[in-house]
Amino acid sequence: MWWRGFRAAVLLLIAGLSACLHTTVPSPAGPKGILSFTNSFHDFGQVTEGDIIKHTFEFTNAGKGSLRMVRTESDCGCTTTEAAFREYAPGERGALEVTIDTRGKHGITVKSVKVFLENAEENIVELTLTARLVPPPHPKVENRAHATTDVKCRTCHLESGVGMQGAFLYHRVCAQCHGRKGAGAGARALNDVQWLGGVDDAFLREVTAKGQPEKGMPPFVEGVTPPLTGEQMDSLIEYIRSWGKQ
Predict the structure, then answer these.
(1) Regarding the domain with residue range 144-243, which homologous superfamily does it belong to in the CATH classification?
(2) Does pTM surpass 0.70?
């Protein structure tokens, strides 16, 4: 009867669906690329603080498939050449330029850049750059009293101390003349216990604010921008006074 044929057709359909559910059809995987850098590490050597330095990393797609460079990620304000973000065929060469702004950095600096890829055997490749930063040579100064007012000087001698206090402020704006920890360097030593015992806080505050032009001491409050705040001057005096207690 007709229903027997219908039943047989339904059973056949169910059997076919069951077979499909238990059968894994492998998806074809094409060949992948391999991003091979000539060098993944670069040492700039000695660099003057504040310089903007650049290095170009050369690479080749050493794999059998095409790959795509999609973006980079760095642990600082490094920038890269966005033109390098594209697809590379097997054997194709390319270059990636990395820029580092060393302003505000000191000593030995190490930076890393991660390169993100698609269709590559390794989807992240890391580059490393290092440099040994040294202070710029100080030009000959005819009169140190202009250090906080001269446009070319105040960046180091005044503006570098914005927002800082105590020891950090001292070593930003005072140590260049009075030496590290007040030991003296072109200007008198401030860690002289006998001298500290002969001056009061009012004197230290006035000299800091107005300077002593006749002795080459620049002002740090009057006539300069940005001036030290009262809180900053108090922190400097407290730090300088600590040497007299040692």
Answers:
(1) Cytochrome c-like domain (1.10.760.10)
(2) no
